Amino acid sequence: MNTAIDLHVLVRGRGFPILCLHGHPGSGQSMSVFTNHLSKRFKTFAPDLRGYGKSQATAAFEMTDHLLDLDRLLDRHHIERCLILGWSLGGILALEMALRSPERVSGLILVATSARPWGNHPAISWQDNALTGVAAVLNRLSPGWQWNIDAFGRRSLFRYLIQQHTPETYHYLAQEAMPAYLQTSPQATRALFSAIQQGYNRLSDLSQIPCPSLVLAGECDRHITAASSQETAKALPNAEWHCYPHTAHLFPWEIPTQVLMTIDQWIYCHPQIIQYDFGNKTDAG
């Protein structure tokens, strides 16, 4: 059995802690669309999960080992209670943390994720892979280049990850997605696909999560469908669900302003999620 490891983590801001968990492939840096904004009022923690980014793993591990690492991270930073924001795989880990240690989780922001994830992604052809490789390399060299977007990006596998092919979105793909992809270890990929093959389903357990939850989905998500996310929202006792039209799995990079406004409004309407357990101290300090 593996033991917990110390994760590389990006820490920003001051105030009530928000733990930001990335997806696959991903890294703490790929959560910047959230941390750049939230760290203005809160203290954000964006770790590289085991096998991702700078938290590299040489030995095989299981998905449950991520939970050991995250418990260790919270203990290391003396975090007794936090709000968790999880994107895709990160959202599944957020749900698991809320089931494992509900006293440590004040609220959940679940992005493009599900307690019983399913997708409807079409089969991938060699042309898809070829076009995606060209689009990714050119976009890395010249982020947001409109010619590349029109010539290759819209015809590549990016068309299943995003719906709005804007230069801003392609900047995120170049600066956040590609480095994370290159730093994702084979061990991390094997751990994820092993869990998927076993048929992950925690829907029946969600009634045990009492904290407020915000569930966000992209209408055209082919990796974890909007219906899958909505099913999770309905099973959570205290959840609010939003579905954004004409967006896909990476919708925070497609419509960042709209997503962040939704999050801000939800936090404003649930002040208890950013309150400490002692005294009257809040995120304002």
- Main sheet attributes: strand count, strand direction, barrel closure: 7 strands, mixed
- The H-level CATH homologous superfamily, spelled out, is Alpha/Beta hydrolase fold, catalytic domain
Kindly give the count of domains: 1
Uncertain spans, ≥5 residues at pLDDT below 50? 279-285
Summarize the topology.
Elements lengths: L8 E4 L4 E5 L10 H7 L4 E5 L16 H13 L5 E6 L1 H12 L4 E7 L14 H16 L4 H6 L6 H4 L5 H16 L3 H12 L15 E6 L7 H10 L3 E6 L6 H4 L1 H14 L16
Parallel strand pairs: 2-3, 2-4, 4-5, 5-6, 6-7
Antiparallel strand pairs: 1-3
Provide a descriptive summary of the structure in words.
This protein has 11 helices and 7 strands. Strands 1-3-2-4-5-6-7 form a 7-stranded mixed sheet, sandwiched between helices. The protein has helices spanning 32-38, 64-76, 89-100, 126-141, 146-151, 158-161, 167-182, 186-197, 226-235, 251-254, 256-269; strands at 9-12, 17-21, 43-47, 82-87, 105-111, 213-218, 239-244. The chain starts with 8 loop residues before the first strand and ends in a 16-residue tail after the last helix.
